[in-house]
Amino acid sequence: MDKYKLALLGEAGAAGLDRGFSIRYKIFRESYSNEMYHWKYFQKYRRSFLEKPVYYVFSILGFIISLFGIEAVKKVNEIVERNAIDFYKNNFNEDDEDIMRILEDEKKHFAMSVDA
């Protein structure tokens, strides 16, 4: 699978998780909005019939995780965002303006888990 399809499905999953988290924790609304932007960005390069199922499965999973409390949400978010940052740094040109913005957003999302 190519890097654009992985990024597309990863952002669909991240948007779903943040959607599920934001039902109980409003602080995740902005990161949900960012992840939706990232998802739409990668739709310019690839599409997949798996996008919507991944989004909905991860939305449900995000809500279930939120039932375990904010610490569980922070831990999952930390893992997801750390891996997203690593993925973008390893697979995309960090000098690209759009990728740079996505990386900045992912770093802000990561900071929500480790600083908050």
Automatic annotation (TrEMBL):
Q: Which residues cross the membrane?
A: 54-73
Cite the entry's keywords alphabetically. Answer: Membrane, Transmembrane, Transmembrane helix, Ubiquinone
State what protein this is by name. Answer: Demethoxyubiquinone hydroxylase family protein
Q: Which organism is it from?
A: Saccharolobus solfataricus (Sulfolobus solfataricus)
